[in-house]
Amino acid sequence: MTIPFPAPGDPPRLSEQEFDLLLAAAQPRLRGYVASILGGWSDVDDLVQETNLVLIQKQGVFEAGTNFISWAFRVAYFKATTWRRDRQREGRVVFSETAFQELAAHAEERFTTRDGSSETLAECLKRLPAQERELVEVKYVQRQSLVDHARTLGCSAQSLHKRISRIRLALRDCMRRQSHSERS
């Protein structure tokens, strides 16, 4: 198997781990965006999951250094458009196309212009040792039980809970330092 080398001028790509960190950091904003354009919470989890699947499938087209949140919102918008069309066929749509587009524009502005906490978190996650990043991914991206993961590692669940607590504190401190240095 040959591994293709990027051609000169090809846009930079993220590693799989960098992409996973951006995706994990984007989840709260993505959920808020989707809830805003759906007008409620009933189908948010399903739509966010579908959006995440598309983002993962298309991660190779995402250019490093561009706005990940805007890209994720665009994918979610198209998923929500399909969701709305399906509800419209069922006679369950309560707002017009114009209202839907206005909700989407407002939600994008609201959740895109938020402080850079997702990007700061992603940057702080990159600074963690590999084992700690893996533990964060297991707990918050894969949503695996720490008890189950402890069994896999052959350690106690209590020790993993203590480690994840220390990691959260380290991330919080890192984010505070980053926000202070950005203001200076």
UniProtKB/TrEMBL annotation:
Residues 119-171 form the RNA polymerase sigma factor 70 region 4 type domain. This is Sigma-70 family RNA polymerase sigma factor. SUPFAM superfamilies: Sigma2 domain of RNA polymerase sigma factors, Sigma3 and sigma4 domains of RNA polymerase sigma factors. Signal peptide: none annotated. It holds the Pfam family Sigma70_r2. The keyword Chloroplast does not apply. It comes from the Bacteria. NCBIfam families: Sig-70_gvs1 (TIGR02989), sigma70-ECF (TIGR02937). GO terms for molecular function: DNA binding; sigma factor activity. It comes from Luteolibacter ambystomatis.
